[in-house]
Amino acid sequence: MTKLKLKINGMSCQHCVKTVTAALTEVEGVQRAKVNLRKGEADVRFDETRVTTAHLTAAITEAGFEAV
Fold first, then answer.
1. Beta bridge pairs of residue 66
2. How is residue 29 annotated by DSSP?
3. Residue-wise pLDDT tens digits, 21-39
4. What is the fold of 2-67?
5. For the whole model, what pTM was predicted?
């Protein structure tokens, strides 16, 4: 498993956190996603043989936020 910290722009409330968490955990191969509103980031644990950083950033973008 690989761990990655992604900076996320555009989150302003707990609903945003829930939306980003759901978007990330729906990506096949993601084991865990923990989103922190105050820090504006997500810690993601995933199987690097099934998921790339591009998959994760695309899921965040599709949810209406920006991964940096």
1. 9
2. T
3. 999 999 999 999 999 999 9
4. Alpha-Beta Plaits (3.30.70)
5. 0.92
